[in-house]
Design a protein that fits this description.
By secondary structure, the chain is of the alpha+beta class. The chain is built from 4 helices and 5 strands. Strands 2-1-3-4-5 form a 5-stranded antiparallel beta sheet, with helices on one face. A hairpin with a 2-residue loop joins strand 3 and strand 4.
Length: 130
């Protein structure tokens, strides 16, 4: 085999391997589980009378791969409340590494395209925060 044809054969083989592995790599890096977003309510801005859109700030987000399809939102929300108050999981530690306070009343949690406000007892579904 000539050097030119050897190079051509090698490149063709590498291209075939790349095409075959592309779907595998996409499956590995694709986020699994719903997108969870944590928003903190800024009590000071609310107290000073600023518009509601200035009183909420997204502070953390991640894909929760431990949630299986069909899990009810109330179960997911309670899991997030526990995770970001007393949890010891990887994401709970990353959350605290940023010196973020625990999840509290009036904070918001987004689950994909659904949003909820933490009440003194339970959760209320709300429109998306600005």
């Amino acid at each position: 085999m000539s050097p030119k044809s050897l190079i051509h054969h090698t490149l063709a083989t590498l291209l075939d391997l790349f095409r075959a592995s592309r779907d595998v790599v996409a499956a590995i890096i694709r986020p699994i589980g719903p997108l969870i977003r944590i928003y903190h309510h800024d009590f000071l801005n609310a107290l000073l009378g600023f518009p509601a859109r200035l009183c909420v700030q997204r502070v953390f987000s991640y894909h929760d791969s431990d949630i299986t399809p069909g899990t009810p939102d109330d179960v997911i929300l309670e899991r997030q409340f526990e995770r970001f108050n007393i949890g010891t999981s990887y994401f709970a530690e990353r959350y605290r590494d940023r010196w973020l306070r625990s999840l509290s009343v009036d904070d918001r949690v987004g689950i994909d395209d659904r949003f909820y406000r933490c009440d003194s007892s339970g959760w209320t579904q709300i429109p998306a925060p600005c």
